[in-house]
Amino acid sequence: MSDDEAFEKQLKSSALALERRLTPHKKSVSRRWIVRLVLLLTAFVVTATLGIFAWGVSAFNAPGPATETVVVVLPKGSGVNAIARRLAKAGVIRRAEVFAIATRISKTGTKLKAGEFEFPPAVSAKAVMHILIRGETVVRKLTIAEGLQTPQALELILAADGLEGDLDLAGGVAMVEGELLPETWHYKWGDTRRGILKRMRTGQQKLLAEEWGRRAQDLPFKTMAEALVLASIVEKETGKSAEREHVAGVFVNRLRRGMRLQSDPTVAYGLSPDRPLDRALSRADLKSRHAWNTYVHKGLPPSPICLPGRAAVQAVLHPLETKDLYFVADGTGGHVFAATLTAHNHNVAKWRRLQRALNKEP
């Protein structure tokens, strides 16, 4: 081997030895960089996650976009996502995804109630969630006025917004005139028409039972059904609360004496039982032979002629003690009463003069 070859061999040997000594150092440097990179990425992910979480919390608690009260109906069976989308579309909350994620994190998604809700202006998504959890639904009102006939009341129930289903009158809840209690009834979106109808019927039965137990003595009728009939006549005869007991006292006196009630509203009902008669009564009407004509038949008619209210029921069960047997309109919305036919005829003549004078006015 020449001197050059020997030198080259020695040089290679030295290089290999140096490489062996440096390799562990390279590996150590590489590992340190990997660890640093992982820590850096982890810090970035944690920081980003915390930032997103903080933003989400802030968005969840921030005032909503609504500038006025918003009413939203949430159907039964709606999931969290569907509820969130509907709220966002209505302008109650800004971001549906924030609401949906927050309710799931707080494990309240299954507690959200369905129904009709009223949200105030600028309400936060968090406040919206609690409103839905508490089920603070809108309370609606259906007013059935005293003196309506049953078909009119049924039309109002059918037209009431938010009630569901039909009346199912063929399903065991067929109505007889006077059976419903005319009041303002409260209900919620999604309640059934049949349900509110049954509440009104039960309300009238309860009222009659309670007042019947406190009735005056020696009344000229023996049953709650008869009391309801007379109450319906009183209801149609006067709209003034101050004179209901007086009108009831007149009818009670006439029944005791076996006199005909001679009530115009009973005649009108017999001619038009489905809705109020749209014309004035004629002399011929007063002679009609239908069963409700109290000018022709003595005693009470066979059924109520309208829906009597609480005050009318109380009036006939606690009538005014009076000697009066007659009354006629006084031209002011009330009536003038009389104990004798002579006095009554005088009052009638006065009323007719007033009517003629009113008809002549331009």
Please sum up the structure shown:
This protein has twelve helices and six strands.
Distance between the ends: 149 Å
Strand element count: 6
Q: Total number of helical segments?
A: 12
Rounded Rg: 42 Å
Question: Would you list the SSEs in sequence order as H and E?
Answer: HEHHEHEHEHHHHHHEEH
Molecular shape: rod-shaped
Q: Output mean pLDDT.
A: 85
Going by helix content, strand content and strand pairing, the class is mainly alpha
Unreliable runs: none
State the helicity in percent bands. 40-55%
Largest β-sheet summary: 2 strands, antiparallel
Major sheet: order of its strands?
A: 1-2
- The proportion of strand residues reads 5-15%
Give a description of the structure.
It contains 12 helices and 6 strands. The chain has 362 residues and is mostly helical. Among the domains are: 65 residues, Dna Ligase, domain 1 (2-Layer Sandwich); 68 residues, no CATH class; 40 residues, Double Stranded RNA Binding Domain. The strands form 3 sheets. A two-stranded antiparallel sheet has the order 1-2. Strands 3-4 form a two-stranded antiparallel ribbon. Strands 5-6 form a two-stranded antiparallel sheet. Strand 5 and strand 6 form a beta hairpin. Helix 6 runs parallel beside helix 11, helix 7 packs across helix 8 and helix 7 crosses helix 11.
